[in-house]
Amino acid sequence: QYKFRDLTIEELKNVSETYPNFTFSMNTYTFKDGSQKDLLNFSGTVPVKYGNSYNIPIRLWILDSHPFAPPICFLKPTANMGIAVGKHVDARGRIYLPYLQNWSHPKSTLIGLIKEMIAKFEEELPLYSLSSSDAARQSELLSYIAKITEGETDLKSRSKTGGRDEGCFNKITVVGAGDLGIACVLAVAAKDVADKVVLLDLSEGAAKGGTMDLEIFAVPNVEISKDFSASADSKVVVLTVNSLGNAQTYLEVIQSNVDLFRGIVPAVSHYSQNAVLLVASHPVEIMTFVSWKLSSFPKSRVIGVGANLDSERFQYMLTNLLKAEVLAKDAWVIGEQGEDKVPSWTSCNAVANQTEAMAARNSRDKVANRAMEILKGKGQRSWSVGLSVADLADSILKDKRKVHSVSTLAKGCCNINSEVFLSLPCILGTSGVIEMVRLEEDPLVQEKLQSSAGSIHDLQQQLKL
């Protein structure tokens, strides 16, 4: 039931009068969380001049809170059309516009939205004609886009784009050909983690730098591609991309990364619908949250690299530098990457009385503080993060059930009630996070985690997804 029925009908009448080619219907729309709702929608073409005149097919879904909430907008390409991913369109054909982001009734209207859509499409045409070979290669993606725009997503179906069942074939895709992406490829290859590694180079122009060197020296079982379909049937997809735009503020930098992920995450999620997404982009906690939202994957299969590198270093220091082997096996670095990370423990040794317990705790904390001070002097260079990524991928692909401190959905832990990702000790396997390991209760640690969760949630609330 539409809450503001009369206002909605009046708007749709205006659209029908201005664009008589639009057809209206009521259909079931499936949201990213799997919920469904019968919604009004209309589809047709809008006229766009881009040198020549084009009719761009679109479909708009009207939410039941209209006109106080903006519609959900998609391109509706035919079989011989390809989607030109850009500032305003992602790989699935979903349309993003400033008008939608700033929607406010009564200033915002459907007619105003369509006019801005035409203006933006005249700056950057959202569709292009496919050759017959391109059309065949992308037919699977177009079919998926058609289902999305019909609101009929089948998130459990497995992509068959690869043309065969990969079976036990272990394939990893690394998205992004910067220093971190190449470091991940080399680390995965060096540790013999996968049978095949695909490096998706999304940069403009010809191959440069490290990508060209990978081709020159022919690293075994590594493929370099600019086509998302090359990632099909990956078991792990590693996201390393970061926007290099002209953003000035920290929020603008993050928003720039979010805009970049809009065109990437839905595409790789489509081609590898059973993959584990492993996020190494910055800031890792927020970009893992964004990847979870954009992919519609379950929370267990979207993981950030988090504090895995710091935890491994922390345990090594306790064992080898400070000779505290007993402590090291239960020691973790958790929380937020950067200065706000904290040491924690997954168990404590039983002691005879409260006095001994206090002494043991003080001794442990002194050692932990020394290790954390040493840790502060260790940077996170691309090659070291690459080794950490290979370590995580190895645990996932080989179903090792090993504990790692990774960014995972922290809601429900330590009295955190918001949807934020923080590093916590988790058992990893082929399905991603199998189980979160229980931490020793420590009020100071919980307070720091809650503080990190609060600041991350505040930032997320300002982002336009």
From TrEMBL:
It catalyses: (S)-lactate + NAD(+) = pyruvate + NADH + H(+). One of its GO terms (biological process) is lactate metabolic process. PROSITE patterns: UEV. It comes from the Eukaryota. Residues 1-131 form the UEV domain. One of its GO terms (molecular function) is L-lactate dehydrogenase (NAD+) activity. InterPro entries: L-lactate/malate_DH (IPR001557), Lactate/malate_DH_C (IPR022383), Lactate/malate_DH_N (IPR001236), Lactate_DH/Glyco_Ohase_4_C (IPR015955), NAD(P)-bd_dom_sf (IPR036291), UBQ-conjugating_enzyme/RWD (IPR016135), UEV_N (IPR008883). Interconverts simultaneously and stereospecifically pyruvate and lactate with concomitant interconversion of NADH and NAD(+). This is UEVLD enzyme.
